[in-house]
Amino acid sequence: MNPLLVLIGSFLLLIALSVPIAFAIGLASIITITQLGLPLTSVVNQMFASINSFPLLAVPFFLLLGRLMNDGGITDRLLNFADSTVGHVRGGLGHINVMVSMMFASLSGSAAADTASVGAVLIPAMKKSGYPAPFAVALTAASSVLGGIIPPSILMVIYGAFGNVSVGALFMGGVLPGVLVGLMQMGYVYYVAKRHGIKATGKFSFSKVGRTALTAAPPMMLPLVVLGGITAGVFTATEAASVAVLVGGLLAFVFYRAIHIKQLPGILADSVVGFSLPMFAVASAGIMGWLISYLGIAQEVADFILSVTQARVGIMLMVMFFMLVIGTVLSPVTAVIIFLPIIQGLCVSADINQIHMGLVVILSLTLGLITPPYGICLLIATQIGEVSMGRAFVAVMPLIVLIMLVIIAMIMLPSVFLYLPQMMFPKTF
């Protein structure tokens, strides 16, 4: 039997049997390896090779940083600052939702953590203020997607580690699309607020902005430490993550005194567990990614796409739609590892810049966080807002379209979106 059919068929069968995706990927790969007569030691070797990467060490540090920021009351300070800045505008709570997600994304890099922490506060508040519950849920989930776009992004670290692509260049490339998505979401919030007759509340106060800015300024400096250190060549992305954790720990334990030292073992333990789960998925996906390369599937897919179109724009649009579909059933991290050989094969064959393609792939996959059946961020938000998945998905569709427009603009106007990474990391181009 064709090994590819064995791989895909066994994977789909295991998914139909409700086997967790990480286990389904690993078991399907083992079945295929056995059918090919390859030694089972290949499984262990590939799992180890997948996680034996120095850049991957940045992931637990960023997860720990997000936990320190959340437990340290940083989220509340960001909320207060956002309220003083945009709370007086029509649709103020919605604007606060987006703005806090943008700031939270620049601290943790985790979309799911953003949904849980910000949603717990703002979804009930938005419902109470007259916003339709499905919209409040949809906006919270969609704005949290910025955690995968605005640096530091854990997904960008994974992509850079496995693709041997500059993480710093990916970080800088995520700045402009992240800001654009945030601004477009704010524009949509204004439209919805006007449509439902939700008026502005409160007045703008320079003194309030000043007070809240003072308390929010220290954590807001962390992204500058991370990006500044990487672009200046002072440290790598992994080292930047460890420095950010050190600074975040000083803020939480010493400056704000919001966390007691006795809580540290529990925080570290939770961070280890939170890191181990995605790393198991990474290890399992590494086996399937290796099999795809071993069977020559990557080149076959690249040849098929090139037979349809050889235009750079056409190829990238096909990749975008393919990733949108894949993102509905696989987590972004898993999808990146499995399909990276195909993506990079296309880049080589069609002479597409790796940073450019990486940004398109990452933004496309982040939409999977808000599209069923995977849609983890939308799922978390629906549970908080007590809204059915169907109603939430209908409400999130316009926000998905906005993100897709940014991706298409990125494909059509590479010089605009690649300006920052080209300026900061010219050697990667």
Helix content: over 70%
Tally of helical runs: 22
Residue share in β-strands: under 5%
Please give the domain count. 2
Task: Please count the beta strands (DSSP E, at least 2 residues each).
Answer: 0
Gyration radius from CA atoms, angstroms: 22 Å
The low-confidence parts are none
Spell out the helices and strands N to C: HHHHHHHHHHHHHHHHHHHHHH
Overall residue-averaged pLDDT value: 87
Q: Describe the main β-sheet briefly.
A: none
Distance between the termini: 43 Å
Overall structural class, as computed from helix and strand content, comes to mainly alpha
Shape: globular
What does the model show?
This protein has 429 residues and is mostly helical. It folds into 2 domains: 1-38; 39-428, no CATH class. It has helices at residues 3-16, 21-36, 41-51, 58-71, 74-86, 92-108, 111-128, 133-144, 154-163, 167-195, 206-220, 222-231, 237-255, 264-294, 297-308, 312-326, 332-350, 354-366, 376-385, 389-412, 414-417, 419-424. The longest helix has 31 residues, at 264-294. It starts with a helix and ends in a 5-residue tail after the last helix. The model has no long low-confidence stretch (mean pLDDT 87).
Short description:
It contains 22 helices and no strands.
What distinguishing features does this structure have?
2 domains; globular; 429 residues; mainly alpha
List the helices and strands and how they pair.
Blueprint: H1 3-16, H2 21-36, H3 41-51, H4 58-71, H5 74-86, H6 92-108, H7 111-128, H8 133-144, H9 154-163, H10 167-195, H11 206-220, H12 222-231, H13 237-255, H14 264-294, H15 297-308, H16 312-326, H17 332-350, H18 354-366, H19 376-385, H20 389-412, H21 414-417, H22 419-424
Helix pairs in contact: 1-2, 2-14, 3-14, 4-13, 4-14, 5-6, 5-11, 6-7, 6-8, 6-10, 7-8, 7-19, 8-19, 8-20, 9-17, 10-18, 10-20, 12-13, 14-17, 15-17, 16-17, 16-18, 16-20, 17-18, 18-20
